[in-house]
Design brief:
With 326 residues, this protein is α+β, with helices and mostly antiparallel strands. The protein contains 8 helices and 19 strands. It has 3 domains: 99 residues, no CATH class; 130 residues, Jelly Rolls, CATH 2.60.120; 73 residues, Phage tail protein beta-alpha-beta fold (3-Layer(bab) Sandwich), CATH 3.55.50.30. The protein starts with 15 loop residues before the first helix and ends with a strand. InterPro entries: FecR (IPR006860), FecR_N (IPR032623), Ferrdict_sens_TM (IPR012373). It comes from Duganella alba.
């Protein structure tokens, strides 16, 4: 693809092959490179505009190593060549593919999910029982803070999605669940909450939940069992009947009913490491079915075997693109 397509510098689109080669050079130059190696790298960078863009990403990443968190700092750069070196390359490319977005996201995350009381990794689901007996199940890449005081029980959803079953034990303190968009007060209930970029979605399975937008207290509304809604800081969307797909994750499934392929892939991507992308030619393809969120490879195989698409894998399966079948 053209070097200038999609922007300039770190925002430019770079081919996977160039990124993989840049990662290879980065590892080599960090592992006792000779002057001949450095000259060869310079020649490689000058031979193609894509190489220059890919190397710019690599240098940007290298400059950030000193402030990256330990789990991303990649001490494997100093390992000997071989299988471990290849693994290092793959992890480097993983960061390079999304720079600078990944870096900006990390800086935000430092004060968000990673600092939370309870959180889950990508692909992980976890159920915890709080001090009052309330049960909270966290979906993939989710994070909550819990604050119980003499007057309240507050669960703050920082990121991701949770299923909350309020305790039946008598407790004079009101239980509340908050997001930046507002406050939810369950009235003896089971309910699902998911954070989006600028909104929160709520599905009530049992009981009822009072929703109060953060900047519009007079807009408070009670959502009864069998209903769902979505709200931002000032507005609550019209109430709808609960869509079973919204809570299918609790059973390890992703439900699709005439869902666009690009939307399904976006949901699937929440549960897996790596990148899955969809070519524009098949993005609007309508897909139906029940797909396992714990086995993304199986889900992709199901899509390829059922619909007129193929999956092209790069970087040892880290980068997958769904394309129209020839």
């Amino acid at each position: 693809m053209p070097a200038g397509d999609g922007g300039h510098g770190l925002n430019a689109r770079v081919s996977p092959a160039a990124l993989e080669q840049a990662a290879d050079w980065l590892v080599r130059l960090q592992d006792g490179a000779t002057s001949e190696d450095r000259d060869a790298c310079a020649q490689w960078r000058a031979s193609d505009p894509q190489h220059a863009l890919a190397w710019e990403r690599a240098e940007h990443l290298l400059n950030k190593f000193g402030t990256l968190p330990p789990e991303l700092a990649m001490p494997v750069l100093n390992r000997a060549p071989g299988a471990s070196r290849r693994a290092a390359m793959t992890r480097i490319v993983a960061l390079m593919l999304t720079a600078p977005i990944a870096w900006g996201g990390w800086r935000y995350a430092q004060s968000q999910p990673w600092a939370a009381d309870i959180h889950t990794a990508i692909g992980e689901r976890r159920t915890v029982t709080l001090a009052d007996g309330t049960s909270v199940t966290l979906n993939t890449a989710s994070a909550i803070d819990v604050r119980y005081t003499a007057t309240e029980r507050l669960i703050t959803l920082r990121n991701g999605e949770i299923l909350v079953r309020s305790s039946h034990q008598p407790d004079a303190r009101a239980l509340r669940v908050s997001t930046p968009e507002g406050m939810m007060q369950p009235l003896g209930t089971l309910f699902n909450v998911r954070r989006h970029e600028c909104s929160t979605s709520l599905a009530v399975l049992e009981g009822a939940v009072r929703v109060t937008p953060a900047c519009a207290a007079d807009e408070a509304l009670v959502i009864d069992a069998g209903s769902q809604t979505r709200f931002n800081k000032r507005h609550i969307a019209p109430i709808q009947s609960t869509d079973p797909a919204m809570t299918a994750w609790t059973s390890g499934m992703l439900l699709a009913d005439q869902m666009r392929l690009d939307e399904l892939v976006a949901e699937l991507s929440r549960y897996r490491h790596g990148l899955v992308r969809v070519e524009p030619a098949v993005a609007a393809l309508r897909v139906s079915g029940a797909f396992p969120i714990g086995d993304s490879e199986r889900t992709l195989d199901m899509l390829v075997s059922t619909y007129p698409v193929d999956a092209v894998q790069r970087l040892q399966g880290y980068w997958i693109t769904l394309i129209a079948r020839a």
